[in-house]
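Late entry, written up from scratch paper. The run itself happened at the end of the previous shift, but nothing got recorded in the book at the time, so transcribing now.
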Amino acid sequence: MENIPPILYAEDNENDIELTLGAFKQCRLSNRIDVVTDGVQVLDYLKYNGKYLNRKKEKPVLILLDIKMPRLDGIQALKIIKSDEDLKTIPVVMLTSSSMESDMVESYHLGANAYVVKPVDYDDFIEAAKKIGSFWAIVNKTV
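Output as recorded:
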């Protein structure tokens, strides 16, 4: 079980982090969830920079990426991830409160694998997070 790759979760809203982690726990994901709070931290994590310099050399099985984050937003981070030969095969799910069509179109254009608008209702949010975790971390196969 110790070779199960982590999920990288980029979110700056503490409440959304708590809800998502709770939903993942309910569906019994074995993956470690590594949480970062902005796009700069996403890239530092993926490229083993800064405080992630000594983290275990492993790619996440999934990146959950919010759009509206400080320093570097999710769309900018997505663009960098999908243009990097070592990172571009990692599935990226945009998990965001933005229902703007332009954000969705740009995310898919840049290579997002899915675009999920965070439900406002608590139960719907929990159910969406469970489905994301179950599919991308358990059902989906990555290279």
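The mean pLDDT is 88.
(Scratch paper discarded after transcription.)
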